[in-house]
Amino acid sequence: MKNDLKVQFALPCIGKEEEEACLRVLRSGWLTTGPEALAFEDEFAIFLNGVRNSRNESPVHCLAVNSATAGLHLALEACGVGVGDIVFTPSYTFASTAEVVRYLGAEPVFIDIAPGTFHLDPAALEQTLERLDRGLPPYAARGGFGPQGSPKAVIPVHFGGLSSDMEAIGTVAKKYGLKVIEDAAHSFPSETENGFLGTIGDVGVFSFYATKTITTGEGGMVAVRDAEIAERVRLMRLHGIDRTVWNRYTDTKAPWYYEIRAPGYKYNMPDILAAIGRVQLARCRELLAMRQRIGSAYDAAFAGDDRFIIARTGEGDARQLYPLRLADSLSRDSFITKMGDAGIGVSVHFIPLHTMPFYRKRNGFYEGDFPETLNAFRREVSLPIWAGMTDEQVAYVINTARAPDFK
User: Fold this and answer.
1) Domain boundaries of the chain, sorted by first residue
2) 335: cis peptide before it, omega within 30°?
């Protein structure tokens, strides 16, 4: 008998409070960046600063932007990355992590992931830096590519909401004078003994895309302890103008006057998005608990099945993704097709950047480059995990995935 149950890969968990927040903004007459965005920043900072890490560092400043991609771009710029500089990223990540490096005329240099993880390998990072120190290109001969600039930063990606090895990465970064910019797009609200992911490096960037634990539809937040970096991000996110639109609107003395201090960007978050974010932030523990319940059910179901490998390494537990590694006995393409035929949405995270035409052509990458990255990619499949999934839907995903005819 045909089963009509459907399970989408991701759905936002939006309710009446979010709807009312949007209506409040629409009725206010002020739709762009204003009091809601400022309140969202303040409330997000209060949340992050509620868990102080063991190093007792200065408070986190939070700056709302219109995407995590924008936040990463601003973070790199504020950390002094420029033309010809080198920024290290994993190849195992989404497009934005590397493309923002190119925005600034710098070169992304890819690093393999550590065996058994989805995270940048600190040992491979150090080996690449040692090559550069000796005047060698970062990779073996690749069509003459060998950046001559200075290594400036590393962007560890906290895949699925689990922490990269921040202690080891931090040690390498300190040795070579690199800024650490956390791609924490998957990571809110992942807590570790050193504080929230996104607050451990020099700068952290969160995403509020529609599939994330809390969402504003599109949007992001930059978290930074250094006041000078925070001020640079604040300036550059809106055309390099030294006053916010809301400040000019509420100032009765000289509302029209402003100065451009630098050629900035248009990366501000509108109030209507921030209003949704404020409600979602207040619900974040509830939304996280829903995801954790689903993840725990999956863990219990797949732990005893040797066709599947539960790939979970690192601290934190945002459960942004539920990645399975399929054993060699399973065809990933067949698995994805059969799940789709059953009405279950699945995905793959991520297609390695070094296999993409732009980077492959530019750097002359070979099929066998970054072997751990390729091995992880070829076996990975992501199952649905979102706040609001019913027990029936979770059981349906498990039973369909574990069906004996999946080979």
Assistant:
1) 16-284, 285-401
2) no
pTM over 0.85: yes
For residues 70 and 270, what is the distance between their CA atoms, to the nearest angstrom? Answer: 14
Q: In sequence order, what DSSP letters do the residues of 121-151 get, joined into one string?
A: -HHHHHHHHHHHHTT--SSS--TT----S-E
3-state secondary structure of 330: coil
> Angle at Cα 95 formed by Cα 90 and Cα 100, nearest 5°?
85
Taking the C-alpha atoms of residue 65 and residue 205, their distance in angstroms, rounded to an integer, is 10
Q: Buried (b) or exposed (e) across 272-286, using 16+ Cβ within 10 A?
A: bbbbbbbbbbebbee
Which CATH number does 16-284 carry?
A: 3.40.640.10
Q: Which residue, chain included where needed, has tokens 């070829």?
A: 378
Cross-strand bridge partners of residue 323 = 382
How many other C-beta atoms are found inside a 10 Å radius of the C-beta of residue 82? 13
pLDDT along the chain (407 residues), means of 10: 80 98 96 95 96 68 98 98 97 98 97 96 97 85 59 97 96 98 97 94 98 97 98 97 75 79 97 98 97 96 93 84 94 96 97 95 87 96 97 97 82
182 in Cβ contact with 39 (< 8 Å): no
In the residue annotation, 212 being an active-site residue is answered as yes
Which of the residues 16, 212, 253, 266 is marked catalytic?
212
List, in sequence order, every residue forming a beta bridge with 108; answer none if it has no partner: 87
| Cis before 189? omega within 30 | yes
Strand ranges, E, within 45-124: 61-65, 86-90, 107-111
In the CATH hierarchy, which top-level class contains the domain 285-401?
alpha beta
Distance between CA atoms of residues 83 and 42, nearest Å: 34
